[in-house]
Design brief:
With 272 residues, this protein is α/β, with parallel strands linked by helices. It has helices at residues 4-11, 19-29, 33-42, 59-66, 77-89, 122-133, 148-154, 168-181, 206-211, 221-224, 230-247, and strands at 16-17, 46-47, 69-73, 93-97, 138-142, 160-163, 185-191, 194-200, 256-261, 266-271. It has 11 helices and 10 strands. An 8-stranded mixed β-sheet has the order 5-4-3-6-7-8-9-10, with helices on both faces.
Length: 272
């Protein structure tokens, strides 16, 4: 009797596995696309959707990404781009936490917003979108706001947390929960032409250092608004930091913050 491994090996094109073979394998063996993808990666076969990763990320590293779990806190401007890029790079499980629905005023900057989607929960839209671009990835939608009471349960088993929130007190609570659970936190925020990115590793108090002098509930984005390109830039840097943490590659943005000024095209590194 033909095994899954026999099938994948016979349908591979060199060290690449095409989409059609993944579909047939899932149907023939009664498996999810995720199970087929994991089996292929274990055999050192790379799904064609990751072919352009190959020169920068090995197949072994691709398997590590697939076995990783990332939580995205918020599914608006930053969070939508984050989910999109995490799914395309091949993170196996993405937990998306956001209670909000799509509104018309989201259209200028949120990738998961459009007229037909008005009134739909953003996390449900994220699930649908990822199914269209990489159905091997599991998106876990959570239609409620993050709170310090729910945080311990919501983030259990998560490898890295991405901050895409818009509330300073909630960010600080998130930092506390990540410290308690020993989870690295990638922080990002945006306002108009400006943004910032920083990391908080377990045992560090990065968010406290950044926001210790802030007294309001939200940042200056309430005054500046947000533009279409700023969340894409900042989310992309956040996702790159997530991948570096998961793969143990490169130099993480520890004890320093990138302050990004797109209006004057200046990026300043601030020591924390």
């Amino acid at each position: 009797m033909e095994t899954l491994h026999d099938f994948l090996r016979s349908h591979a094109q060199g060290d690449l596995l095409p989409w059609e073979a993944k579909v047939e394998a899932a149907t023939r063996f009664g498996l999810t696309f995720g199970a087929v993808e994991e089996a292929a990666l274990e055999m050192n076969l790379l799904p064609v959707c990751y072919q352009q990763n190959q020169q920068s990320i090995t197949t072994t590293q691709q398997l590590r990404l697939f076995r990783s779990k990332v939580a995205v806190m918020g599914c608006g401007g930053l969070g939508g781009y984050a989910v999109e890029e995490l799914a395309r790079i091949g993170i196996g499980e993405i937990k998306v936490i956001d209670p909000d629905v799509v509104e018309e005023n989201n259209f200028n900057r949120q990738i998961y917003s459009s007229i037909p989607l008005i009134g739909k929960h953003k996390v449900d839209v994220a699930v649908q979108r990822v199914e269209e671009i990489n159905p091997a990835v599991t998106v876990v939608p959570v239609k409620k706001a993050f709170t310090i009471k729910s945080g311990l349960e919501l983030l259990q088993g998560i490898d890295v947390v991405m901050d895409a929130l818009d509330s300073i007190p909630t960010r600080l609570e998130l930092g506390d929960i990540c410290t308690k659970l020993n989870i690295p936190l990638v922080h990002g925020s945006i306002a108009g032409w400006y943004g910032q990115v920083a990391l908080q590793f377990p045992g560090e108090n990065t968010l406290e250092k950044i926001y210790s002098r802030c007294t309001g509930q939200s940042g200056i984005e309430r005054e500046t608004g947000n533009l279409s390109f700023t969340p894409a830039v900042v989310a992309s840097i956040e996702v790159s930091e997530v991948c570096k943490i998961l793969l143990g590659e490169g130099t993480p943005l520890r004890r320093r913050m990138l302050s990004i000024n797109l209006l004057d095209m200046e990026v300043v590194e601030v020591e924390l």
